[in-house]
Amino acid sequence: MRHDRPAGPPADHPASPSDLPSDPGDQVWLRFVSGPDIEAIALTPAEIVEAVADVVAAHGRGETVFEPRTHLVTRDDGRGHFNVLRGHVSTLGERGVAGVKVVGDFVDNHTLGLPSELALLTLYDPTTGVPLAILDATLITEVRTGAMTAVGARHLARRDARVLGHVGARGTAFSNVVMLDAAFDLEEIRVTSRRPESREAFAERLREVTSTPVVVTDSIADTLAGADIAVEATRLVEPAPLVTCDLLAPGSLLIPYGTVSALAPDLLDVVDKVVVDDWREAQAGEFGALRPHLRSGALTRETLHAEIGEIATGARPGREDDAERILFWHRGLSILDVAVGHLLLRRAEAAGLGTLVRMR
Predict the structure, then answer these.
(1) pLDDT at residue 77, as a whole number
(2) What is the fold of 17-140+335-358?
(3) Which runs of E-coded beta strand occur in 34-184?
(4) CA of 194: how far to CAs of 113, 169, 254, in Å?
(5) pLDDT digits over 4-28, tens only?
(6) Hey, which residues does 80 pair with through a beta bridge?
(7) Model pTM?
(8) Across-strand partners of 243?
(9) Domain spanning 143-332 has what CATH number?
(10) CB–CB of 289/329 below 8 Å?
(11) What is the residue extent of each domain of the chain?
């Protein structure tokens, strides 16, 4: 993609921190890293997965400060809301980094040519509160979600998994599939979504980057039945029992993270282990794939097997048997955004990308 940049900053606008006055007094400058800047940095999927794996382990060791998300619901028709995510990772940089992300989730954005999820991430020095950066977090949201899917599968899927079934074709879907395809020796990728045009376009996009056969199906049943790894990333307005017990093969891993539940009420009856990214996050808010199962008491702290950070650090076992059916529910942790955002900020600083903005 072409990335035109201005010839230079205005006279009162430093090009980099080294151009700041030696004694800036009470001046505060922060770096705005735009979507085109992030595309130019071009982090690899492997770099993103490792950044997410590292912060998942840090969370398991208690090296993060994490708060569950809150919601700002601006529509009463179930077709859109904002998520506000907050977190701090002490292992990033010399003093750690704190961050806040606001992401909108609006189901009809495709009719306007917009992603359903648009986001901004702000990063801060946790010792002074000084803002460090503002980043377009739309791509960050997509890739850190795909990376968490891959990290979860690394611990919970069978190593000989060969068939991936993916339901949903919105923004995060591409990273899910690409990162899982890189982690496993897949023989078939099945995809479907509610709109025929979106699933066909999704399949074509995947075929450009993978040699694994990509099969488009007309139904969730055809996509998930017998799949070794099943990912549900629908965007429903009302809960619907689309993923049923009969679709989960012995030894399969199901990763559901739709905003509104697409899971049958009795699904946990056939699941051997339920793993979440964070138990407090799982309980927070009104949305999420297992929200009805929490409300009904089918999922409790006692029936939960583990948080993924406990498994990453070895405190709890992951997959112990090739016949286990495992469900991994990840809602998206703020600390993943902070970790990937921090990596992008460091790369932007090194490459001279982004725009320095004077706050005060």
Answers:
(1) 86
(2) ornithine cyclodeaminase, domain 1 (3.30.1780)
(3) 64-72, 80-89, 97-106, 117-124, 131-136, 163-167
(4) 17, 9, 19
(5) 333 334 434 444 444 444 455 679 9
(6) 106
(7) 0.88
(8) 263
(9) 3.40.50.720
(10) yes
(11) 17-140+335-358, 143-332
